[in-house]
Design a protein that fits this description.
Elements: E1 2-7, H1 15-31, E2 33-38, H2 44-56, H3 62-82, H4 88-112, H5 117-124, H6 126-141, E3 145-148, H7 151-154, E4 157-160, E5 163-166, H8 168-177, E6 184-189, E7 192-194, E8 200-202, H9 208-218, E9 223-228, E10 249-251, H10 252-260, H11 271-277, E11 281-285, E12 294-297, H12 302-305, E13 309-324, H13 327-343, E14 348-353, E15 358-365, H14 369-380, H15 383-389, E16 390-403, H16 409-422, E17 429-430, E18 438-444, H17 448-460, E19 464-471, H18 475-493, E20 496-504, E21 508-516, H19 521-528, E22 530-531, H20 535-547, E23 554-558, H21 563-566, H22 569-574, E24 578-581, H23 591-604, E25 608-609, H24 620-629, E26 634-640, H25 643-653, H26 658-667, H27 676-680, H28 682-695, E27 705-706, H29 720-726, H30 731-743, E28 746-754, E29 760-768, E30 780-787, E31 795-800, H31 804-816
Parallel strand pairs: 1-2, 1-9, 2-6, 3-6, 9-11, 10-12, 19-20, 19-23, 23-24, 24-25, 27-29
Antiparallel strand pairs: 4-5, 7-8, 11-12, 13-15, 13-16, 14-15, 16-18, 17-18, 20-21, 21-22, 26-28, 26-30, 28-29, 30-31
Helix pairs in contact: 2-3, 2-4, 3-4, 4-6, 8-9, 9-11, 10-11, 13-14, 18-31, 25-26
This protein binds adenosine-5'-diphosphate (ADP), aspartic acid and magnesium ion (MG).
Aspartic acid binds at residues 8-9, 39-40, 45, 127, 190-191, 205-208.
């Protein structure tokens, strides 16, 4: 059995590549019988077409012919330098002969001002004729026999002289009759066929792939290999998306979709003859021979193949918009048009709307423009109606997203529209006449590359995006930005893209539509941030900005301690933003709102996350949620919830005086600027309330019973330094407390408890040795949960529960939980 190999223009673009191709041919021939189809060297066909256009317009075509002449001369001269057996003179004389012929033909076109299709086809096919001649002589020079199949005589074709179809049945008979010399390498120029009068016709631009498929069918080949300049069929054109992935296996039907929708790597006509005879097709890289390439068969192995998606495009699309007043009429016209285009074998896209405005949109490659205009004008509408009813547009592109499996088309289509909208790319229309696994839409041509790049990134590379709107750049906010910046590379590796669009503090807003560079946010904030002296105004401005939500996965992060900001959460979620907060104000506000926001977030399918409300970065909220989810009931809670008080009482155990311990905690930044806030127990009460609510108790802040730490009142009017003096009077009291506890092998800790009935208490307690809270010190938090399953030994979470690093990392983790 024979194998057919086709080398495209990209593989034959210069002498070096042509020699490389000859080596591949020889290597293959040594193993099996082969027939080789050759294209013209890259760009030659374009120059030939251009020379005809110039001649018709009475412009200088000679320059173009000169270019071709020089190009072929260069190729053969370079080949002869590497190979002294190469018959340079003979090949040069063939080149000269063809060039003379071209000059003569183009001269007549110049005088006639037109070019009949027959002549056009002869001129444009010269590239293939010459590259075959060159390859033939390379192989002869290396002592191989060759046999040239003349496609004009053997590939019987019909249809348009520039875009013909080959009749396989008749062609096969011809080829069978050929007396192919045994042990010879068969060569055939691609792109060319012959009509029933044995006149040269073309098989369509890019048609050498089709020539190879036709020859494979006629020879009943074992396989058809398309050798080109890419590793196979990829998820997108690598000229636009260099990191497009290879599709290793694909079915005939799937590849037909891909090439019809623009994947230029294989001509759309190629598959049909192969599919009929079940001949496998491989797409391989001439410049990367060892790569397996893409295998195209009837049923591609889905397992190996996985599920692929790919993006294709066709530039140079024009549209015909046909309006009508009534639905019946428009449906009738639509049917008529479809029939006509099908008969003409013109691949087109369409969309029809019959509700409200009634119109049909046809989208067709520009090369068919005149043909379609003619059909619509002469065969469907009358001349005057055509002008009235039809509007045309040019410079459009069609972008298609193809899945190997059926997708949720509407959902995906909406997602794409929203996504592109954000980048100011307008989808002009979505195509309706397509199967479930394809989404095609029309955009302006100028946006083609940008759109493809964006879609490939988001849909195929599966980059998950989080758009950040950060409120509050104190310790936590700043540290969060630092942590994100440090993790940038790892995030990228995990296909996560975190982009910051807004940063605000209590006075200034920095908003950048294109996103803020994380490395230089401080500078940008300083230079470009807008100042709002009134907080109200600032909040209003933020609301205004977020209202225009064109984002994919936007998140508001509240790292402030502002009540006014927390009141905006409803608004943020309604505008389809996730809300992440380290600010406790909302969750300790009234219970009605606490419940309402959770319902709203659920309805809007948005996340409301606040892991850092209790215990900094410790996984507390998540743990309680898991208790609730799995039906385990928390019967008792006991915890040390204040890092500063944990530090202070730890120091007392070590023998330090109370006033000294407070001062040290203050110096180390463990307490609030005014340590009296820590001592009031209010912050612990807030945390305890959040835990209690999370467990399921309906409580308000005033329900938390706080037993004061200090035995007597202190002067609230004192400044912090005066306060440090004042508390010295409690040193002895605490020394005694610690001593008496020690005698009973106990320690004093400031703890919060929640009992089975939801009674919440905060007080100084004597903790005995067996209690998991006994050894907690150095600013640690410790939380013990007793439940149906966790008893008598509770589940304990212990660690630093405050500090900007751990809290910021808790916010960061919430952030990553939004996807
Ligand atoms: P040849 O000259 O070998 O016929 P073509 O230029 O016709 O080569 O086709 C190969 C080109 O197809 C590649 O260089 C690539 O830019 C383009 N292409 C477009 N879509 C795809 C795709 N999905 N996979 C691979 N290549 C593609
Ligand atoms: N040389 C022709 C073209 O450029 C055919 C081909 O390369 O497939 O259209
Ligand atoms: Mg090609």
């Amino acid at each position: 059995m024979i194998n057919v190999l086709k080398f495209g223009g990209t593989s034959l673009s210069n002498s070096k590549n042509i020699l490389l191709v000859s080596k591949i041919i020889i290597k293959k021939f040594k193993k099996k019988k082969i027939a080789v189809v050759l294209s013209a060297p890259a760009n030659i066909t374009n120059i030939l077409e251009k020379s005809i256009e110039l001649a018709i317009q009475k412009k200088n075509y000679k320059k173009e012919i000169q270019k071709i002449h020089e190009k072929f001369y260069k190729i053969v001269e370079e080949i002869s330098l590497t190979n002294e057996n190469f018959l340079l003179k003979k090949v040069k004389s063939k080149i000269n002969q063809e060039m003379k012929f071209l000059q003569k033909m183009l001269k007549s076109i110049y005088f006639l001002n037109k070019c009949p299709k027959k002549i056009f086809a002869i001129i444009v096919s010269k590239g293939e004729i010459l590259s075959t001649k060159i390859m033939e002589n390379i192989l002869i020079s290396k002592n191989y026999n060759t046999f040239i199949i003349n496609p004009i005589k053997n590939l019987i074709s019909n249809g348009d002289a520039l875009d013909s179809y080959v009749n396989i049945h008749d062609s096969k008979k011809n080829i069978k009759k050929l007396n192919i010399v045994k042990k010879s390498i068969i060569l055939m120029p691609g792109f060319i066929g012959g009509n029933y009068k044995k006149e040269l016709v073309l098989l369509g631009r890019n048609g050498s792939d089709y020539s190879a498929a036709v020859l494979s069918a006629c020879l009943k080949a074992k396989s058809c290999e398309i050798w080109t300049d890419v590793d196979g069929i990829l998820t997108c054109d690598p000229k636009i998306v260099p990191n497009a992935k290879i599709i290793s296996n694909i079915s005939y039907n799937q590849i037909i979709n891909l090439s019809n929708l623009g994947a230029k790597v294989l001509h759309p006509k190629t598959i049909s003859p192969l599919k009929k005879l079940n001949i496998p097709c491989y797409v391989k890289n001439t410049f990367n021979e060892s790569k397996r390439g893409t295998k195209i068969v009837k049923n591609s192995k889905q397992k190996k193949n996985k599920n692929y998606s790919s993006i294709t495009y066709i530039k140079n699309i024009c549209s015909f918009s046909i309006k009508s007043k009534n639905t019946k009429k428009i449906n009738k016209v639509y049917k008529k048009i479809l029939n006509k285009l099908k008969n003409q074998k013109i691949y087109f896209f369409s969309s029809i709307k019959t509700i409200n405005q009634k119109y049909i949109n046809l989208y067709i490659e520009k090369k068919y423009y005149k043909k379609i205009k003619y059909i619509l004008k002469k065969k469907i509408f009358k001349q005057e109606n055509y002008k009235k009813k039809i509007k045309t547009k040019k410079k459009l592109s069609i972008i298609s997203l193809i899945h190997s499996k059926n997708s949720q088309k509407n959902k995906l289509s909406n997602h794409i529209q929203k996504f592109l909208n954000r980048y100011k790319i307008k989808i002009i229309n979505v195509i309706s006449n397509q199967s479930k696994n394809i989404i095609s839409f029309i955009i302006n041509s100028k946006n083609t590359n940008k759109t493809i790049k964006l879609l490939h990134k988001i849909l195929l590379n599966k980059v998950k995006t989080i758009e950040i709107f950060l409120l509050g750049i104190g310790g936590i906010g700043k540290t969060l930005l630092k942590q994100i910046s440090q993790e940038k590379r790892n995030l990228k590796k995990r296909n996560l893209a975190l982009k910051i669009f807004l940063i605000a503090n209590s006075k200034k807003i920095l908003f950048n539509k294109k996103s803020i560079k994380i490395e230089s946010w401080k500078k940008e904030f300083l230079n470009n941030g807008k100042t709002y002296p009134q907080q109200e105004e600032l909040i209003k401005k933020i609301s205004k900005i977020i209202k225009k939500n064109n984002y994919i996965n936007p998140v508001i992060i509240d790292c402030t301690s502002s009540k006014a900001i927390s009141k905006q959460y409803f608004n943020y979620i309604k505008n389809r933003y996730h809300v992440i907060t380290s600010n406790k104000k909302f969750n300790t506000g009234n219970l009605k709102n606490y419940k309402k926001i959770r319902k709203l977030a659920c309805k809007m399918n948005k996340k409301f996350l606040y892991e850092t409300n209790v215990g900094g970065g410790l996984p507390i909220i998540q743990t309680i949620k898991n208790f609730v989810k799995t039906g385990d009931k928390i019967s008792y809670f006991k915890g040390i919830l204040s890092g500063s008080l944990s530090f202070i009482f730890g120091k007392l155990e070590e023998g330090m005086l109370f006033s000294e311990a407070i001062q040290q905690a203050h110096q180390k930044g463990f307490t609030e600027p005014d340590p009296r806030e820590d001592l009031s127990g209010l912050d612990v009460a807030r945390k305890l309330l959040i835990i209690a609510r999370e467990i399921g108790h309906s409580l308000e802040l005033q329900d938390i019973q706080i037993q004061k730490i200090l035995p007597k009142k202190i002067n609230k009017k004192n400044n912090v330094n005066e306060f440090f003096q004042e508390i010295k009077k409690f040193d002895e009291y605490f020394l005694n407390q610690i001593d008496s506890a020690k005698k009973n092998e106990k320690k004093i800790k400031f703890i919060g408890t929640i009992n089975q009935n939801g009674i919440c208490k905060i007080k100084l307690s004597k903790i005995n040795k067996n209690d998991p809270l006994y050894n907690v010190k150095d600013g640690e938090n410790a939380l013990s949960f007793y439940s149906k399953y966790y008893q008598p030994i509770p589940l304990v979470i212990k660690g630093y529960g405050a500090g900007k690093e751990v809290t910021a990392s808790g916010v960061f983790s919430d952030l990553l939980n939004t996807i």
